Amino acid sequence: MERLVERLEKAVERLETVCQGPGMCGDGSSKGVAQYVQAFDALLAGPVAEYIKISKEVGGDVQKHAEMVHAGLMSERALLVMASQHQQPTENAFSSLLKPISEQIQVVQNFREKNRGSKLFNHLSAVSESIPALGWVAMAPKPGPYVKEMTDAAMFYTNRILKEYKDVDKKQVDWVKAYLSIWTELQAYIKEYHTTGLTWNKTGPVATEGTKSPSVAPAGAAPPPPGPPPPPAPAPASSSTDDSASRSALFAQINRGEGITSGLRHVSDDMKTHKNPALKNQGGPVRSGPKPFTAPKPACNANPAQKTSLKAPALLELEGKKWRVENQENATNLVISDTELKQVAYVFKCTNSTLQIKGKINSITLDNCKKLGLVFDDVVGIVEIINSRDVKVQVMGKVPTISINKTDGCHVYLSKNSLDCEIVSAKSSEMNVLIPTEGGDFTEFPVPEQFKTVWNGQKLVTTVTEIAG
Fold it and tell me: Rounded distance, CA 81 to CA 275, Å?
């Protein structure tokens, strides 16, 4: 009963607010600002401000990244202000209006790519994987689930941060909580104000490509006085009259019934091309239908040198305690031999290559690799395979855990000393584990990809689904 009363009170509050103006809040300080813009300002002043504050305390690349995220959120606010005062534009015009947001998303993601050697790379990755959530304004009819999907993409990296700093640095844990709360609050915001897509004004002028957002300051700052209303669009001279006359003439013709064909000219056999082939050979322009659309070729194709200049350089180097193996192609003899227990190896975007790591190392990560073969001796931590395709990993010594995420095609060859290895997989397919036999060969076992979940009365029980074939 108490919950029902509470819900009724909230409903009354919202009705009172709406009564003071369509989409406006009742307090004088925010007069003229749409209710959902003010709600977005509350999100900026709450979770976003906390995220910015903690990011400044962490400093370095995290602080720079946070400033870029804030710029993206302000671009989104500008679009919300525009939508609150304009009717929905055409598809082409809307694409142009989304450009500032999409460009800022690209800036955030490029910063991660340029700083792969950063000590806070997991922080940068968590932000880069989830920042496309700002594109919810273009996602109809389910913008909320889209934001959740982008948030889930960040969880892999935020979990790594929590695992690394849980008992070491509380500030890093607070950073994760603050950042994830932005997207959690945004989902709640969308559910309340933009359930099926961005809400546009029903009575204002139609937004166009050149429409600029009014300079409405976020809540807390005194907004400038509103400018004069836009002049009404000039009505085209006699356009409505001409349209009405044309429409009347059309219906008059249709109402004639069979008589509508009386004005058509008879076509005799000698005027038909299929009965008089000589007509096809006569000169003169031949009318044809419109040509099919072909996309214009990009200008960069004219200069192949530009295309190759954008290719990232191949790396195999030790940077601090991290071995970086990046952008290797068709390299079949890559070897890392001078290893130490505290070192880690990060292998990124390598294709058609083979890498051997000798000695004992802390951890190995394969990221965005294709047709890569990895052979290693011992790993004391974890071997991670992320966003890769058609990779083969062979353990010569011992490894406690192998993690496979977002990977299609992965063969893991275990040694006799590593048979107790734990293999954790998610969002992956075509995984096989090969177990050594007494004769020196391997027996292949597929990792299950299909599961069945049932409710047993108390909890969900998930089992592997056996497919007969």
Answer: 66
pTM (2 decimals)?
Answer: 0.48
Residue 396 φ/ψ, nearest 5 degrees: -90, -30
Could you read off the pLDDT of 269-308 as tens digits, one per residue?
666 666 666 665 555 554 444 555 444 454 444 444 444 4
Q: How far apart are CA 217 and CA 78, in angstroms?
A: 10
Please answer whether residues 133 and 151 qualify as being in contact, where contact means their C-beta atoms are separated by less than 8 angstroms: yes
Eight-state DSSP code of residue 46: I
DSSP type of residue 273 = T
**359, exposed or middle or buried, with CB in 10 Å at 0-12, 13-18, 19+?**
middle
Q: Identify the helix (H) or strand (E) that includes residue 79.
A: helix 60-85
* Distance from C-alpha of 103 to C-alpha of 183, rounded to nearest angstrom: 20
CB 334 within 8 A of CB 328: yes
**Cβ atoms of 37 and 84 closer than 8 Å:** yes
What is the chain's mean pLDDT, rounded? Answer: 81
Encode pLDDT of 427-467 as tens digits. Answer: 999 999 999 998 889 999 999 988 899 999 999 999 988 75
Which of these ranges, 6-20, 91-105, 334-348, 356-370, has the smallest mean pLDDT?
6-20
Q: What is the DSSP string of 211-266?
A: -----PPPTTSPPPPP-PPPPPPPPPTTHHHHHHHHHHHHHHHHTTGGGGGTTPPP
175/48 Cα distance (integer angstroms) = 11
Q: Running DSSP on this structure, what letter comes out for residue 206?
A: B
Side chain identity, residue 267: V
Alpha-carbon distances, residue 149 vs 66, 157, 301, 328 (angstroms)? 21, 14, 36, 32
Residue 26 DSSP class: S
Element (H, E) at 443: strand 442-446
Tell me the pairing of strands 344-348 and 363-367: parallel
* Bridge partners, residue 324, by sequence: 317, 346
The rounded Cα 58 to chain-centroid distance in angstroms is 26
Q: How many helices (H) and strands (E) does the chain have?
A: 11, 16
Residue 100, φ and ψ in degrees, nearest 5: -60, -35
